[in-house]
Amino acid sequence: MFVKTLRFLALALALSAPIAAEAYTGPGLGLGAVGVALGLVGSIFLAIVSVVWYPVKRLVRRLRGRAR
């Protein structure tokens, strides 16, 4: 029983070992990944700016209205 379990574990370990991927990332995929990353960072930046800008804009309008 112990030998069968040991053989099974050895086989499972051998099959789960990573092997080198013979893959090529072309320029289209690389530029697409860069574009997605920049789009994600840009959308997060614009979301933060829009949340901060609206209250500041309202405050400036109120202060200008009182000054007149």
Provide a descriptive summary of the structure in words:
By secondary structure, the protein is an all-alpha fold. The protein has two helices and no strands. It has helices spanning 2-16, 27-67. It is elongated. The model has no long low-confidence stretch (mean pLDDT 88).
> What is the N-to-C succession of helices and strands?
HH
How many alpha or pi helices? 2
How far is the N terminus from the C terminus? 92 Å
Structural class: mainly alpha
- What is the molecular shape? elongated
The low-confidence parts are none
Helix content: over 70%
Total E-strand runs? 0
Please supply descriptive tags for the structure shown above.
68 residues; mainly alpha; 82% helix
Topology:
Elements: H1 2-16, H2 27-67
Task: Compose a concise summary of this entry.
With 68 residues, this protein is an all-alpha fold. The chain has helices at residues 2-16, 27-67.
